[in-house]
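Thought: the user asked what Cryptochrome/photolyase family protein looks like in 3D. I have the sequence; next I should run the structure tool and report back without guessing.
Action: structure_tool
Action Input:
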Amino acid sequence: DRGLMWFRRDLRAEDNAALHHALKSCRQVWCVFVFDTEILDPLVERGLTADRRVEFIRESLVELDQRLRAIGQAHGHPDTGLIVRHARARDEIPAVAARLGVQAVFANHDDDPAAKHRDAHVLGALAHAGIMFHGHKDHVVFERREVLTQAGGVFGVFTPYKNAWLKQIREEHLKPWPVEALGAALAPLPGPPGGEWNHPVPRLSDIDFEPTNLSAMALPTGASGAHRLFESFVERIDRYHEARDFPAIKGPSYLSVHLRFGTISIRQVAAVAWQMHLQGIQGASVWLSELIWRDFYHQILANHPHVVERAFKPEYDRIRFEHGKHAKELFAAWCEGRTGYPIVDAAMAQINQTGYMHNRLRMVVASFLVKDLGLHWHWGEQYFADHLIDYDLAANNGGWQWASSSGCDAQPYFRIFNPVSQSEKFDPQGRFIRRYLPQLAGLPDNCIHAPWQARELELLAGGVTLGSTYPRPVVDHAEARERTLQRYAVVKKPG
Ligand code: FAD
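Observation:
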């Protein structure tokens, strides 16, 4: 009864379903993480070697390794820790399992189609060697087909899903899977320190990546970082519903990257939010709703994996988006934050400089790409996938399909965000804009949302020269709106 715990999007040694079950059912458990070359090599080939996610993972693994050592030590096992490999995970896991002579591999579910494909391969190779593969639910509260309609179908609309989720939830769904008390089963790392199995977590350069600006940002890594963020968020959670839409204020939790990589347990945060929701604290209810959106999009991806390639609603695949040279120029302007719409450009500066973007702004820039620039949502989805530190296929695809109206429970296609009124409403004094576009900081509040409408004198006083210090708008919103309504008219036609 030896086991191998394979960490993926669950980088913590507390309240971890697979780790709990491994420690409980095996006498000796090794822990492994693989920097998967199948994921990383394409980034290296595309020259994307400064990736905040890779650095975030690396920093979080250092802490996980220390934590596993401390838990082992507390049980009188001094040489425990994390085995870290840099290889193709689908081959490496069966190889490590065989060399360590384990009878079972434990991992938490990952319903990303590429991960499922990888896991099926691993399961096959393990089975061939007579080794078991145990998967556990850990990443979401309810997964796959756990919340269903009365007729037994998968929900495609959020509000009824949320109501069913809230009806179904019990304390037992949120109870932690303890780890520390079971630490006696942690096995010593094989071989001498510094040997093949027993060495510190590799440096970024060892896996062909470079440092990013992550350490300069106010984004703490690892389980300890997640706890700090969560504690500080709980102090302001009662104001979440009022503050969450204003990008200039510290409204949201900033936990998305931690939930993505599992440096904090979804059960732990959902349990706190649920208890406060039951006490009638409105901010907590609204935040809990966001966590339910997360479950919702994960079950959509698990049950409708076609959304990765195609529209959730097939008729939306008929829409013809712009392409060709001009479309590419518009796309470059969007990516680089030079569309001439300050709220869009400031938001793109935020993602480019930090890897994070405020939720309200994700909706604004996504709508702008699809419905003002007329570009395919896949283009924006891919850009977010490359740049977001919290990139998650389920949530990102859900967000883009929502904005392009092609998704389940999406924004109706004729509802088109006006980037100027969004800016006036959610960044009224232009505080966010000024932070990310210092070249516009001198403009008065009433000009900052649409500088092309300002009087020459106001621009001059603000030190702004349109077309030189700041671009003119690349499209006219009213005209773009008409084009979009025409473009989308095909969804109404049969066939
Ligand atoms: P909070 O407001 O504190 O919310 C708490 C948590 O709830 C988040 O950390 C997240 O895990 C979850 N959550 C919140 N909103 C959503 C949502 N709409 N869908 C699913 N989960 C949600 N979120 C990602 O985690 N990864 C992505 O790649 C991603 N891409 C997006 C793309 C677009 C076009 C849009 C419109 C939204 C996207 N979101 C994505 C959802 C949302 O914008 C982020 O989760 C949120 O901004 C993260 O900040 P926070 O942790 O401070 O959020």
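Thought: the tool returned a structure. Summarizing for the user.
Final Answer: Structure for Cryptochrome/photolyase family protein predicted. The two ends are 58 Å apart (CA to CA). The first strand starts at residue 2 and ends at 7.
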